[in-house]
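Budget justification note: compute hours in this period were largely spent on complex prediction jobs such as the one shown. Inputs:
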Amino acid sequence: MLELFINSILSNNIALTLILGMCPLIAISTSVKNARGMGIAVILVVTITAVINYPIFQLLKMTGTEDISLLVFIITIAATVQILELLMEKYIPSLYSAFGIYLPLITVNCVVLAVSQFFVNRDYNFAQTTVFAFGSSVGWLLAIVLVASIREKLAIYGDLPKGLRGKAIVFMILGILALAFAGFRGLAL
Amino acid sequence: MNLVRIKYTKWFNIFKSGMKTDNPIFVAALGLCSALAISNTVENAIAMGLGVTFVTIVSSVFVSLFRNYIPSKLRIVTYMVIISTFTIFVQKFLQAYFPDIYSALGAYVGLIITNCIVMGRAEAFAVKNPWRYSLIDGFATGMGYMFVLVFVALIREPLAFGTILGYQVMPDGFTTWASMAIAPGGFFILGLIIWALRTWAKSYDLEV
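Corresponding output:
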């Protein structure tokens, strides 16, 4: 269980080895504060949806309709995000004002759907699914915060060629980080 | 003469913007996950490109046909249902006829649903335009995406495996670059291409 957790954060980092959730990672990594907000919102949504999707998938499997699992997953995800948004707005307004703006964006973050697909493909049981979902999203938070902190420093001290500014340098940063994370492969337990 | 005139038609302009000025990957930075993960071999890139093109075309047409019946508050969920229906088509088609490619692409086929390109075209174009133009727009955007994917794959595959579409192209003693086959290769190549294109087109981002 611990192995799965560490694997999903480091040696199988969902952003830097599996390249998932890139669009929000690139769009929101301009400041560490926003990156952290998005990352925490992702942890919340990914873990909750995986926990909800697991029994739903078992139900689909029992009725022999697992072919449409993608459709069902995406509806669950959209609904969960919506409900979470409403609940947060009503009961925890301070948290809502901090993370609320990131929530609607998460529906199209591929990490959420990917985690639900991975537990299907890899035949995880319920406990493994939960740990994997939590670990993967923590890994994503780690990646986005790393990128954001490098970008913040670059914005102050960087003297980049004009063409390299913006997206191009983000890809370079991601490439270097991905190389570093590829080194964790030796750590895979 | 016809060729000159075609330049001024709406059809042509929609096509051009999808391929070039609004290219989903270079300009808008959408749909990157699959673009980076799948572009390690040309074969995968073509399969993924065609899949995305199909889903974009069909879901754009459907969204545009139903655009007057979709309540605006529920539109995102409606797009999702339409898009995931056709993604399941693609998934099942690949699984049945191209099992090798299907296993290579793995979870990324299902992730066409969350590929922002499809959703983006539905929201930005199909919901406001008649189905004929949405069809062209979907096709152009899908082709623009596939073009980039294949281009990146044409650089990565020779370096990573010494082959193109499975045929040996590099000399015999060539040492393959392991990092090109995995994530970092995709990041570096795409970053370099964007750098080159930006410098060439003189269109720069202001912030870092």
